[in-house]
Design goal:
The complex is a heterodimer of chains A (about 325) and B (about 300).
Chain A (H helix, E strand, L loop, with lengths): L1 H26 L6 H9 L4 H11 L5 H13 L13 H36 L4 H15 L2 H15 L15 H35 L2 H8 L4 H38 L5 H10 L3 H29 L8
Helix pairs in contact in A: 1-12, 5-6, 5-8, 5-10, 5-12, 6-8, 7-8, 7-10, 8-10, 9-10, 10-11, 10-12, 11-12
Chain B lengths: L3 H10 L6 H15 L1 H18 L1 H4 L31 H37 L1 H15 L3 H12 L3 H11 L1 H16 L2 H8 L4 H37 L11 H8 L8 H29 L1
Classes of the chains: A mainly alpha (about 325), B mainly alpha (about 300).
């Protein structure tokens, strides 16, 4: 366990550093940077003003100096100041992250509660009508665009129940019922897709388990189906199901970008998009870094969990 | 292409060349009868392809003609899917958008499969340093959730079709890389590679003539599996205004245009979304059928 942990952590750290360089470079690949844009808008393109602004934003330094400056700040928890809002980036990003995290966890819970039981039933009744119906749900759920599902849900609730979610986002501490009703539709539209994915994966696990020797043996020695299912199959596929949760969480982390824009939620995804639109480099970097690090941490946790549950797993490359 | 893949797999596992074309056709027919969902997928894909190739057959109305007198009309005999705020015919826009949307998705994925597949096969075959360096680079791409990467690349570089294709092709390079790499590793350990080496074939010849050929079906299957996902990302980027720009009809872009009218004119967004869903569905059905066939 010890040496595995060290190796895995080292690999994650390397990826984290490389990813932070990628984040830094992506933002600087913008054609026409913020200075050119500002000067273009105010009309003056004198080299003196340009020089002064560049120095003010720290853009006059060579790239690697800018990167190391930024990295140093990141390690101290200082992500710089937003160029547009003038607030500390760390504060803005953290606030947005709490919204995304809440939505993400709610979606994960929803996907698990719906997806896993459906997958278990489908796998247990492989080839029967229930299985076909659940598989149809899975395929349809995976084919429908998330934001489109969101729009449909929006139309459906407003025309069927004459209800529409509150327009202004409130934190759960300000007003819990408003908070939950704002997040309900985003959760459903993201969650149905992930529930379909989870259900399909669970079904595959169950079907796979039925062709294993241990299940055949258990059934052959006369154990009743429900005992085999509860004691043998469930226990064995549990590892896979838990690790799949991590994968889903990362998918959700990506999916929120679209869904937050659709439902006007002040989360990380919308922050990222508005910051890109306004060329607010420090915020783009901060938000991206937060997303990438969350994904890395989820991956790391899943791998370690996997290792704890099943010690046969070894570091791969 | 879709009908050839199972046949190719067959020839790898069964006796090669025995009554190939007639036997293969019959096998495909039997398979379709046993897997109606595969047949449905093929039929739908055929329909969608014909729409993409000959949109004029399905709609004579121009997708960009503006008619402000007929703005935001509900579906009717004149406008099957209704009209948008500029009075453009949504049916025509959805039909003409088919080629735009699907060619962007298909094209980006060819680029993705080419670079990811090539790099993966080389990494798996060469091993050691090549494998390690490319593996790390791929890890970095993989550390961004798919849609985020697309949003950032097309957002930062500015919305245009070129940037969209670039963004979409980078997103799934890692998946193709991994499939090709593991395929190449398996193939490299086979006896025929050793045999080829011992008769004096160079590494490059073995790689391109033998290993690549055997890894190809895996890459093609992966293409089918990823297609719906890339379509969804393409549509999402269009929906965020980062994809194809108006007035060119593109499913995601039409959805974006309809977003503000969702409660009074839901048809604008409804139908292009349906097109996306049916396309994703049909490719998924084919992909599943092929997967079942290959796993047998």
């Amino acid at each position: 366990m010890g040496s595995y942990l060290v190796k895995r952590l080292a690999a994650s750290l390397l990826t984290a550093i490389l990813s932070s360089i990628a984040v830094f470079l992506i933002v600087r690949a913008v054609p026409g940077d913020v200075v050119a844009q500002m000067l273009g808008q105010s009309g003056g393109s004198g080299s003196q003003a340009e020089e002064a602004l560049r120095r003010f934003f720290g853009l006059n330094e060579p790239l690697y100096v800018q990167y190391l400056d930024w990295l140093g700040g990141v390690l101290r928890g200082d992500l710089g100041q937003s160029w547009v809002r003038g607030q500390p980036v760390a504060e803005i990003v953290f606030k947005a992250f709490t919204v995304t995290l809440q939505l993400g966890l709610m979606t994960l819970a929803f996907a698990t509660i719906i997806g896993v039981p459906l997958g278990l039933i489908a796998g247990l009744f492989e080839g029967r009508r229930v299985d076909a119906a659940i598989q149809a749900f899975n395929i349809l759920g995976l084919s429908a665009p998330v934001f489109w599902l969101g729009l449909i849900l929006l139309i459906a609730v407003s025309s069927l129940f004459a209800w529409s979610p509150p327009l202004i986002y409130r934190t759960p501490f300000q007003n819990l019922s408003d908070n939950l009703s704002t997040l309900l539709l985003p959760m459903l539209s993201l969650g149905l897709l992930q529930a379909a994915a989870y259900s399909q994966f669970t079904r595959q696990c169950v079907v796979g388990a039925f062709s294993e020797d241990y299940v055949r043996t258990a059934l052959a020695k006369g154990l009743p189906m429900r005992v085999v299912f509860a004691k043998h199959i469930l226990r064995n596929i549990m590892i896979a199901l838990v690790t799949f949760m991590g994968l889903i969480l990362i998918q959700i982390l990506g999916g929120v970008v679209v869904i937050e824009s659709l439902f006007a939620l002040p989360g990380l995804g919308r922050l990222l998009i508005t910051a890109i639109e306004t060329r607010d480099y420090p915020v783009v970097q901060g938000a991206l870094l937060m997303v990438v690090f969350s994904a890395l941490i989820v991956n790391l946790l899943v791998d370690m969990l996997y290792h704890v549950i099943d010690p046969r797993v070894r570091v791969d490359a | 292409m879709s009908t050839e893949a199972p046949q190719q797999m067959q020839s790898n596992t069964n006796l090669p060349g025995a009554g190939r074309s007639r036997g293969a056709a019959r096998r495909i027919l039997t398979f379709m009868r046993r897997e109606p969902s595969f047949a449905l997928g093929l039929a739908l894909t055929g329909l969608i392809l014909s729409i993409a190739l000959f949109p004029g057959l399905y709609s004579r109305v121009s997708p960009t003609d503006i008619d402000t007198a007929a703005s935001l009309q509900a579906p009717s005999a004149a406008h099957w899917f209704g009209t948008d705020e500029l009075g453009r015919d949504i049916y025509s826009r959805a039909i003409h958008g088919t080629r735009v949307t699907l060619s962007i998705v298909a094209g980006s994925m060819v680029i993705s499969a080419f670079f990811g597949g090539m790099l993966g096969v080389i990494a798996g075959f060469a091993g050691r340093l090549t494998d390690m360096v490319s593996g790390r680079a791929i890890d970095v791409v993989l550390s961004f959730p798919p849609i985020i990467l697309g949003v950032v690349i097309s957002g930062v570089l500015g919305p245009s079709i070129t940037n969209l294709v670039l963004a979409l092709s980078i997103v799934y390079i890692p998946v193709f890389f991994r499939i090709a790499r593991s395929g190449a590793i398996t193939e490299t350990s086979r006896t025929y590679v050793e045999a080829a080496r011992s008769v004096g074939l160079t590494g490059r010849a073995i790689l391109f003539r033998h290993i690549l050929r055997n890894v190809m079906p895996l890459i093609m299957l992966q293409y089918m599996i990823l297609f719906p996902l890339v379509l969804q990302i393409q549509a999402a980027l269009g929906f965020l205004g980062l994809g194809v720009q108006p007035p060119t009809p593109d499913w995601g872009a039409i959805l974006e245009e309809g977003k503000d009218y969702i409660l009074f004119a839901p048809w604008i967004s409804l139908f292009p979304g349906l097109f996306i869903m049916v396309s994703a569905l049909s490719v998924t059905l084919i992909g599943r059928g092929l997967q079942k066939r290959m796993n047998r």
